[in-house]
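Protein modeling request. Please complete all fields; requests missing the sequence field cannot be processed.
Requester role: graduate student
Desired output: 3D structure, token encoding
Chains: 1
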Amino acid sequence: MTNKTIADLFGQPLSVVNVGLSSMAQSVRDQKVPVVEVDWRPPAGGVPQLRMTKTGVDIDDANEEVCRRIKQARPVLAGMGIARDVIPGMHDRMLLHAGPPIAWDRMCGPQRGAVMGALIYEGLAADEREAEKIAASGQIEFSPCHHHHTVGPMAGIVSPRMPVFILENKAFGNKAFATQNEGLGKVLRYGAMGPEVYARLKWMETDLYPALDRALQSMPDGIDIKSLIAQALHMGDECHNRNRAATSLFLRAIGPALARTNTENERLAKVIEFIDRNDHFFLNLSMAAGKAALEAAEGVEGSSVVTVMARNGTDFGIRLASMTDRWFTAPAGMVQGLYFPGFTEKDANPDIGDSTITETAGYGGFAMAAAPAITQFVGGTPQMAVQATLEMYEITFGEHEGFTIPSLNFRGTPLGIDVRRVAETGILPRLNTGIAHKDPGVGMVGAGILRAPEKCFRDAFAALGTLC
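Delivered output (468 residues):
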């Protein structure tokens, strides 16, 4: 029976009242039937309803402000530099890493491999044995990327002489940093070591970086990375594990400047080929864009919105907009996914990397509905990708009108993970990610999906409760 037939029988079209999860009524909406949403769920056992802090701050108002700042952010690729020269607090005996704070003795295999490889790349160690000895000696300071306005995929190692992108949030004036992306497979960020790894990093320092730097210096307005993310979402990317369209858009944006500032044709050709053949090149830019947007939203008293989700391969950690100096951690989970030939789940390290900044900022795994083809890389089905996004609306405070999903009638992506809603619904954030081998030196072995661990959200909710 159609809605028109019902209107003929009863004098008015059918309206459906949906009580509970919004996603339950999606099939009805698809039939163009009006849906009245009732925001109700059974009271969660033992979960208090947090609405106001003891100091009189309305948590919803605080969250509105956080989401407003994130949506108003305008991250622009403004330039490049060498890590020790541009990242605040960086020095010659420091290595930045992904995830919450961790010491060498607790680091997982791929993070150890990346540390050792970075020490060899820096010339601080002659080989892996010496690198391991130096790393364990206390001579090197290890610090989270997030403590230095920086994000790093997978192991996330940033060493002093590595070139980095500089993204400026033009709406608020803050900056964020990220290294250049090496590609997939046997690369440093997955913990790989070896001559080919160091040779690639060296080429990225001596050829790729100068070419990009010259080009960006000739572009006074930089490159609007937020705009590229928005376009890529309409072209089948979600800008975490699928960056094919975004990388192409970036190459299109910087291409003319690369040509105009070129000093040698063959070198330029290799730069263009490297970017073109690395569909993940844009990942580091999308991560830094998310970091620039989220940092501008931090420091809002009473907010229950998450502004950091990060993993170091041992721990999964989050921070709230209202508690920027405090990490809430839990053991990193295992990824369920697709493996390269010759590898299985027995080879996998637990979840690792700062790339969950994308989900935190409202895209990545939260925008999987925009990128159904990603399931060929991480597993699952196109319908699962859609359901993953619909489910995330249940635990987010708002929607990002700047990032829209065509298949959902251009609905804004889920934005602002609210620890209250996580506690009330029991729904945990869905993530998609790469998989690193558990042993140092091997590298990438696959990609997949998983849920964030419950404990860190439960602890953050409890800490918020002490303020209410």
